[in-house]
Design a protein that fits this description.
alpha+beta, four-stranded antiparallel beta sheet
């Protein structure tokens, strides 16, 4: 066979191979375009879901920031109230000290109160606004007059902390008044 036939056959084979490759590439490109379009459609469906989730995340983040700010505000309020309570306790303590000092001075001036006796109990302000002036009776127990009360009976406060009502005129103030 002449060589030109081989050349023609080779050219035809090459043309067929090129045609097959080109057709394969076209089909592959078409498949790729179709697949890309499917992926874009799926992405569009997921985009709205993604936007919803991002909006929910931003909303939750804002709620967390608001809760954090509220907690900080409450913490600051608690600290302010604690400081105010401390100031008021210190002021009450100072007033209590002054009140007790007045009562001690009154007991020292009162001829019916023996402040030098071992059983003398210094005046103390009670939470109810009453206090007991300590006087030592014959038994060594402390008798007391409660402020705000000018009538009998008086009370005897024993060393164990118990109290007892007694009708002893020697423990009352002259004229039925109380010491302050």
């Amino acid at each position: 066979m002449p060589s030109w036939i081989w050349v023609v056959i080779a050219i035809v084979v090459i043309a067929v191979v090129i045609a097959v490759v080109v057709a394969g590439n076209r089909k592959k490109k078409e498949r790729d375009r179709t697949r890309a379009e499917e992926l874009r459609e799926q992405a569009a469906v997921h985009a709205s879901s993604l936007q919803q989730r991002e909006a929910q995340a931003r909303e939750t983040e804002a709620e967390a920031a608001a809760a954090r700010a509220e907690a900080e505000r409450k913490q600051a309020e608690a600290e302010r109230l604690e400081a105010q309570a401390g100031d008021r306790q210190r002021a009450a303590g100072a007033v209590r000290e002054e009140h007790q000092e007045h009562l001690r001075r009154a007991d020292e001036l009162d001829p019916d109160v023996d402040t030098k006796h071992d059983g003398y109990v210094a005046p103390d302000a009670s939470p109810a606004g009453e206090r007991t002036h300590g006087e030592t009776g014959a038994t060594g127990a402390t008798t007391g007059h409660t402020e705000g009360h000018t009538t009998e009976p008086t009370t005897v406060t024993h060393p164990d902390g118990t109290t007892e009502a007694v009708n002893d005129p020697s423990t009352t103030d002259p004229g039925g008044t109380h010491r302050a």
